[in-house]
DNA sequence: GGGCCGATGTATCGGACCGATACATCGCTA
DNA sequence: TAGCGATGTATCGGTCCGATACATCGGCCC
């Protein structure tokens, strides 16, 4: 998941870790909290080892005269490689059922602008189906067992039902739009 | 987090792992997906080692005549201990900022029926503050950088804003209710 | 001038939690 | 009677988080 997000951002422009995290927090803000450094830096190293990104060395030392006693560790700027771009497209296209899960869906959606139309539709419809099932779960609980639940659990179920319902409608809209643009374009 | 959820459920009645997971899926359905066995069973063992739960042995072998060749491993029913109940109350009462986070908030809320009024209010207000901040974030992005975002990212931000807005209003309602009942009761 | 603080920046470690997998039993139905 | 889906316990590898550490830089107040 992080792989996709990081490759996607670096695809737009080279960046160092800190910046990456901030941009990610904005881009995925609606979906999940900012990712932690405990995930980010190890992942960056892994991506680098895999050859999908490289260090692009921030303005390489024109102040080499400065004694390296306090080994001045500056920012590390990463950029995506050609292999990285391939890998990115691969991750975008090869969508399994995971793509409908809460976290993965958000990341995929965030890069829809770079995703093929049919893949977009497949993801949106899969997601819709999933949320519909979730909604059905809430309905059943509320219909069959409402009297056995305490007030707060009940409230949580109702809130969940409402949220699911709204997400389904949101997805319907997006799907309709996608289909329309698909025909017109 | 799991500790709280499991102790809470076992506080209501003894249960075995599988059942625990199902009940949890219902109780927390609005918040998070069902917890995995890879989390559940290790946690059960941990809670048992800590002395907070014990095995309550499903109707202890009145069929001891059956040869134990196929070491018939039946269901393992767990029940909460006195120490476990103390621990549960402790977890309910000692609320730090984690309790406002997405996952933790849901679990805390699910056991509000067993939570003191002032603690309930503190959690609800903390949560509201947190979501208000999130909402503010969306507003700022939309106001300051909308033209620089692609259509999908924009859509995600708008959806996030709306969801945050609705959650704040939901929390307002709950808080108002809590205050009213507090005075009346 | 000097000290402090918050933002910027890289990095690690332990632990929480998940997804896949394995394996066994039970009751139903084809 | 064979197969299948639900029930049930359990482990393993891997992803990701939260806390923590440490260093620099700019601005602010005294």
Name the descriptors.
homodimer, 185 residues, mainly alpha, Arc Repressor Mutant, subunit A, 2 domains, three-stranded antiparallel sheet, 7 helices, globular, DNA-binding
Describe the global form of chain A.
Answer: globular
Number of spatially distinct domains of chain A: 2
Order of helical and strand elements of chain A: HEHHEEHHHH
Q: In this structure, how is the largest beta sheet of chain A organized?
A: 3 strands, antiparallel
CATH level-two architecture of the largest domain in chain A: Orthogonal Bundle
Strand % of chain A is under 5%
The mean pLDDT of chain A is 89
- Tell me the helix content of chain A: 55-70%
Would you mind describing this structure in some detail?
- The structure is a homodimer of 185-residue chains.
- The first copy, chain A, is mainly alpha-helical.
- Chain A folds into two domains: 1-60 and 76-115, Winged helix-like DNA-binding domain superfamily/Winged helix DNA-binding domain (Arc Repressor Mutant, subunit A); 116-185.
- Chain A has helices spanning 2-12, 17-27, 37-49, 82-93, 102-110, 117-145, 151-184; strands spanning 15-16, 53-55, 77-80.
- Chain A has a three-stranded antiparallel beta sheet.
- The longest helix of chain A has 34 residues, at 151-184.
- Chain A starts with a helix and ends with a helix.
- Mean pLDDT of chain A is 89; it is low at 59-71.
- The A-B interface holds A 26-27, 29-31, 33, 101-102, 106, 109-113, 134, 137-138, 141, 150-153, 155-157, 159-163, 166, 170, 174 and B 26-27, 29-31, 33, 101-102, 106, 109-113, 134, 137-138, 141, 150-153, 155-157, 159-163, 166, 170, 174.
- Chain A binds a DNA duplex (30 and 30 nucleotides) through helix 2 and helix 3.
């Amino acid at each position: 998941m992080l792989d996709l997000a990081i490759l996607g951002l670096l695809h737009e422009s080279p960046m160092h870790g800190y910046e990456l995290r901030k941009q990610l927090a904005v881009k995925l803000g609606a979906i999940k909290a900012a990712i932690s450094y405990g995930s980010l830096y190890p992942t960056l190293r892994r991506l680098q080892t895999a050859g999908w990104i490289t260090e692009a060395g921030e303005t390489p030392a024109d102040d080499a005269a400065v004694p390296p006693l306090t080994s001045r560790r500056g920012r590390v700027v990463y950029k995506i490689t050609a292999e990285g771009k391939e890998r990115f497209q691969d991750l975008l296209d090869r969508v399994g059922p995971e793509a409908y899960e809460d976290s993965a869906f958000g990341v995929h959606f965030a890069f829809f602008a770079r995703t093929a139309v049919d893949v977009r539709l497949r993801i949106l419809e899969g997601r819709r189906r999933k949320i519909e099932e979730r909604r059905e779960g809430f309905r059943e609980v509320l219909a069959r067992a409402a009297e056995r639940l305490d007030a707060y659990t009940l409230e949580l179920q109702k809130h969940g039902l409402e949220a699911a319902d709204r997400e389904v409608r949101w997805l319907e809209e997006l799907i309709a739009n996608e289909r329309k643009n698909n025909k017109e374009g």
